[in-house]
Structure formats: structure tokens, C-alpha cells
Amino acid sequence: MVITAGEKLPEFPVLARILGTASKLDPTTAAAAARHCWGVLGRDLDEAAAGALAGPCADFGVKTLALPFPPPPLPAAERIKRAVFQDGAAVFTGTGGLAVTATPGGVLALAAAPIKEETLRTVKTTEGPSAKEKAVRMGIMAVTGLPIGMGKTKEVTKEVRSSELSFYLDIVLEEGPRRLRLSSDNFDFSCLKEKKTYSSQVNFRLLCAELAAFAPSAFRNAGLLAMLEGKPLTPLPYDSLADLEKETLRLVLAKRG
Description:
3-stranded antiparallel β-sheet
């Protein structure tokens, strides 16, 4: 497989030109592929396909790594709900007695992303006759003089779709290796002390900054870099946790590469 080297992801237009040239894709297809490749330029390639990437990458000054495929997978995510910074270390805890101590040099990668999650729930409501039904009945009563009433109420089952934006952070540790995960809506931000606010999203950004300062040698993903630089996150195409995990794997491989 061929991935981009280093921490920072090349700009999406550059990736699109590389993928379009190497794989002979039309501009629209190449742009879509670039936005979701997260630095993974090719997987399960033969030598000819891997070689076809070398020219366009060199043209744009993009350094790459050629690695065996399939790569070692990311370790399963372990949910954490608290963090404590003390004595030059960070202690992360979660449910079921989970407790992990990390040192600054032991953090391989930090990857953050906003993920919009959709939920579908079934609700039951009681509804009366519609305005049109009431108007028809009133017309009948006016013509006939018969008291036929306004109709009966009925129980209706509906599916309600809603979406919420949550922020996720993956912390990949060298020892194990292990991958810890926290979400903005299910974390105790008391470790921020006097910096803590009433907004979970603001607290999340503050915690990301704390962790980036704690582990300065860790590779940081596009989402975390945007947060640290105060850039908007909406241009980043994190459609699901699968995007975050693909990017995180590329970061870990590049860090070790």
C-alpha cells in the first residue's frame, strides 16, 4: 500500500490531481476519492500500480511510504470518561475499572473529528381529524342539520429522524498498542480545572489543546490541527467514524514508517 508520509495531509486538490493522474480518473471521481482517502493513496497494489503513483507524487512534492498490505489494524477503541494530568503523566479511566497511564513520548497519534450521527426513533401520538376533515363535516352538518360530530381521535405511530453532532478524539498509545476514545457528550472535563466551561464542545477543544501540549511528538490529524489553528471544521469531510479511523491508521503507519 502507498500512503502519504509525515504528519500533515496534503491539500485535497493536490490529492485529487495525484489520484486522477495515477488511476486515470475523471476530475469529479478523483475529487471524491481525494476527500475520503485520508492520505491512503492505494491499497493492495501491484508493483505497476504503486509505481504509477510515484511520478505524480514527485511532481507535487508529496513524500510517500510504500508498506506491506494489509497493514496491522488499529487496536479496538477503549472508551474513556476521565483524564488526570499529574507528575508528567496522564491517567485515563473508563467504565469497568479501565485505567491507563500514558507518558508524553508514549503517545503515537491524536486524532479528533466532528461526527454527525443520525438516530431513528419510533413515537406514538394521538391525532384528531385534520382541518380538511373538520371542514367537510361542518359542511355536511350545515346542509343536513344532522349532528354528526367532528370525528374521533386516533393513535398514530411515526418514525422521527434526528441528527446530533458529537466530537470524538482517539489517542493511540505505543504500549500495547492501545487506542483510547472519548466523545464530547460523555466525558468528565474536570481535568480542565478553572478552564472548564459550560459547553462540551468548547471543553473538547480545550482538552485537545491540553493533550497536544502534553504529547508534542504525537502525530495529529487534520481535524485536530484545524482546531489548534482555529480553522473551521466544516470543510473537512468526516462523514462517519470510518473516516476518522482510516485517517488515524494512516497517521500511525506514517509515525512508525
